[in-house]
TrEMBL record:
Annotated localization: Secreted
Entry EC no(s): 3.4.16.-
Biological classification of the source: Eukaryota, Viridiplantae, Streptophyta, Embryophyta, Tracheophyta
PANTHER family with a match to the protein in the record: CARBOXYPEPTIDASE, SERINE PROTEASE FAMILY S10 SERINE CARBOXYPEPTIDASE
Chief location of this protein within or outside the cell: secreted
Organism: Lactuca saligna
Name of the protein in question: Carboxypeptidase
Length: 482
């Protein structure tokens, strides 16, 4: 019931297509379509009726926030005008399991801004990707040593909380290493719920604040599942109610069948695959069936081969040709995304001075987990979970960078179409600085919105458009139509 190897939607440490194929999502999906499949049952709303609430508060949390306050991150620019905190929150004292967080308050009027959790995917990849390569207050210069300010940080409009989850990812750990063998969607969501309840005890001023969960990629599972956990528990708990208002998920893997089909359709329509290969996939692959066939596998292998060595996460971006020969003296620019960002990120976070300032024990930090051996459960679809959240009044935005070929816009469209929701605002462009920022279609209970010219990690490539989208999401308003 387990995956074999390291797999990662985001950690394409490799530079060749063969390595790209070793990404975590690829391996997970392959395992799901094999005889050795992880559990694929869908969570159902009937879970709500079962088990009583068991208290999850792990005292004491008083005074820990002050200890978690970051003085100054190594290499950070002068003039930093906001508070940063980081550290561990224990989620299981018996096992000795703790999750790492990095929290950034908004520079202005933070006490009137919402609290937003960000999760990256994998499964098994770090949310510090989001914090330091996408939407956080800083990006790292490509020498891996200094930081520069992100003018379009999401912390401009919200208090941003980044969580490394589950244990075994990044700085998050367990003293009971057999915990890593039990990684899967269910345990990830359960620990993340315990995390947020205890984090709110540590930062009680945020207890009643509007709360949103955002994320991308395999967080298309994590985010709705955690939201569901919160909504369930809010109905039962005699502890802290988490004031959840909505979720936004980007290039999100939410349904195996529609996402797989959408991926190969995108490849064909974006000149990555031949007619013959696409026809063969249509003929031989039944993505509704969790068991694959040899002919289908042969066709999809061919499709990957035909793609060649492009960055699957943004097919029009340059690739990282040689991380060792990069020009280390370049200063970073927010509008010029570093194709070697993964090496840069490891350089920075695997540095002992940085780790000391982040209040973590010495760790060989990596973009995706090296210690989680497999993934034990992953529902074939999250659509029933999303439906439940809609019915419970949560705001749901599904956004998509339109140059991503990994979880492309076609996958998102097919997935959303499967919900069969009535259209409220017909497909239209949205604008930023007189240019089309992307397109949107509003359904009853859900918004589908694209970001033009963005890859899988949307804010990396289109930081200003991403911030416009995020502000609109928080305000519950569609971005401008002209
Ligand atoms: C894990 O073990 C170390 C060493 O005994 C201890 O300092 C730490 O507090 C433990 N972690 C948790 C979450 O209990
Ligand atoms: C409330 O939580 C406490 C533990 O914090 C528990 O002992 C008690 O039974 C709970 N009360 C109800 C009504 O659930
Ligand atoms: C799924 O695929 C397997 C292998 O080809 C086949 O034996 C089975 O009948 C299929 N199931 C459905 C429901 O189509
Ligand atoms: C590095 O970049 C600087 C500034 O753009 C340039 O002057 C220099 O020639 C570059 N060095 C190498 C080795 O490419
Ligand atoms: C992190 O640094 C340590 C010590 O320098 C090294 O052994 C380890 O391989 C590094 N980890 C990664 C992921 O590069």
């Amino acid at each position: 019931m387990k995956l074999i190897a390291a797999f990662c939607l985001l950690a394409l440490f490799g530079l060749t297509n063969a390595d790209i194929q070793a990404d975590k999502l690829y391996e997970l999906l392959k395992a799901k379509r094999s005889r050795n499949s992880p559990v694929v049952n869908t969570w159902s709303a009937t879970d709500e009726a079962t088990n009583e609430y068991s208290p999850v508060y792990i005292p004491p949390q008083d005074g820990l926030a002050e200890q978690d306050k970051i003085g100054s991150l190594p290499g950070q620019p002068s003039g930093v005008d906001f508070n940063q905190y980081s550290g561990y929150v224990t989620v299981n004292p018996t096992a000795g399991r703790a999750l790492f967080y990095y929290f950034v308050e908004s520079p202005t009027d933070s006490s009137n801004k919402p609290l937003v959790l960000w999760l990256n995917g994998g499964p098994g990849c770090s949310s510090m990707i989001g914090a330091m390569s996408e939407l956080g207050p800083f990006r790292i210069t490509n020498d891996g040593k200094s930081l520069f300010r992100n003018d379009y940080a999401w912390s401009n409009v919200a208090n941003m909380l980044f969580l490394e989850s589950p244990a075994g990812v990044g700085f998050s750990y367990s003293n009971t290493t057999s915990d890593y063998d039990h990684a899967g969607d269910k345990n990830t969501a359960d620990d993340a719920y315990i995390f947020i309840v205890n984090w709110l005890e540590r930062f009680p001023q945020y207890k009643t604040r509007d709360f949103y969960i955002t994320g991308e990629s395999y967080a298309g599972h994590y985010v709705p599942q955690l939201a569901l956990n919160i909504v369930f528990n809010n109905k039962k708990t005699n502890q802290t109610i988490v004031n959840i208002k909505g979720i936004a998920i980007g290039n999100a893997w939410i349904d195996d069948e529609t996402s797989e089909k959408g991926m190969y359709d995108y490849w064909w329509t974006h000149a990555v695959n031949s007619d013959a290969t696409h026809d063969a996939i249509l003929k031989y692959c039944d993505f509704a069936n969790e068991t694959s066939t040899d002919m289908c596998d042969k066709s999809t292998d061919k499709a990957w081969d035909e793609m060649g060595n492009v960055d699957i996460y943004n097919i029009y971006a340059p690739i990282c040709l040689n991380p060792d020969l990069r020009n280390a003296s370049t200063t970073g620019s927010i509008n010029d995304f570093d194709p070697c960002w993964q090496y840069t990120l490891v350089n920075y976070l695997n540095n002992s001075a940085v780790q000391k300032e982040l209040h973590v024990k010495p760790t060989s930090w990596d973009v995706c987990s090296d210690v989680i051996p497999g993934w034990n459960d992953s529902p074939v679809t999250i659509l029933p979970t999303i439906k439940y959240l809609i019915e419970n009044g949560q705001r749901i935005w599904v956004f998509s960078g339109d140059t991503d070929a990994r979880v492309p816009i076609t996958s998102s469209r097919y997935s959303v179409n499967a919900l069969n929701l009535p259209i409220v605002t017909a497909w239209r462009p949205w604008y930023l600085n007189k240019e089309v920022g992307g397109y949107l279609e509003a359904y009853q209970g859900l918004l589908l919105i694209t970001v033009r010219g963005a890859g899988h990690t949307v804010p990396s490539y289109q930081p200003e458009r991403a911030l416009t989208l995020f502000s609109s999401f928080l305000g519950g308003m569609l971005p401008p139509s002209s």
